[in-house]
Write a structure and sequence with these properties.
There is one protein chain. It is built from five helices and nine strands, in the order βββββααβααβββα. It is of the alpha+beta class. The chain starts with a strand and ends in a 26-residue tail after the last helix.
Length: 164
């Protein structure tokens, strides 16, 4: 994935001297749509957990899909070691993925091993309209039996069928 940057001409002044360097910022990113702090606190995530979740969001595609296989985990381990000098082990990352699924931050594709959808209820890339269409598709019959739809709901799945 090629990284794109926005370049800004800055004006920085210190002790009477002004310089105008070009400063670059990453153009790509993801948006957080829902307050999920309660989930982070329930998970009691450490820096590795928060970093890994953010890494997953950075690496998801425009449809919020990410493959969390051994290769992905190895890339994250190398990244973490390069940045911090500390490398989490693969088992820790597997446990984190399981916790993210349990708390609905990730939605496991039931029809493909290692394929996950980063829950667009909480995170997305692209426009609001693209996110709306993605949520609509995920909650349509197209995804029946392919994902655990309750992860997208604000109420228990069965509550929608009471009295029907």
């Amino acid at each position: 994935m090629e990284k794109k940057y926005i370049t800004i001409k800055a004006s920085l002044t210190n002790e009477g001297k002004t310089v105008n360097p070009n400063i670059s910022f990453m153009e790509d990113g993801h948006t957080v749509h829902h307050n999920f702090q309660h989930i982070i606190l329930e998970l009691n995530l450490n820096a590795i957990g928060v970093s890994f979740l953010n890494y997953i969001c950075e690496r998801m595609n425009e449809d919020n899909i990410v493959t969390l296989d051994g290769s992905f985990k190895a890339e994250y381990i190398a990244f973490a070691e390069e940045i911090s000098g500390k490398a989490p082990n693969i088992r820790t990352l597997g446990n984190l993925i399981n916790k993210f699924v349990e708390k609905h931050l990730l939605i496991k594709r039931l029809d493909f091993s290692f394929l996950y959808i980063v829950n667009p209820k909480y995170f997305s890339k692209g426009s609001k309209e693209k996110r709306r269409k993605m949520l609509q598709r995920l909650l349509s019959t197209e995804y029946d039996g392919k994902i655990y739809k309750e992860a997208l709901l604000n109420e228990p799945f069965q509550s929608f069928f009471k009295g029907k």
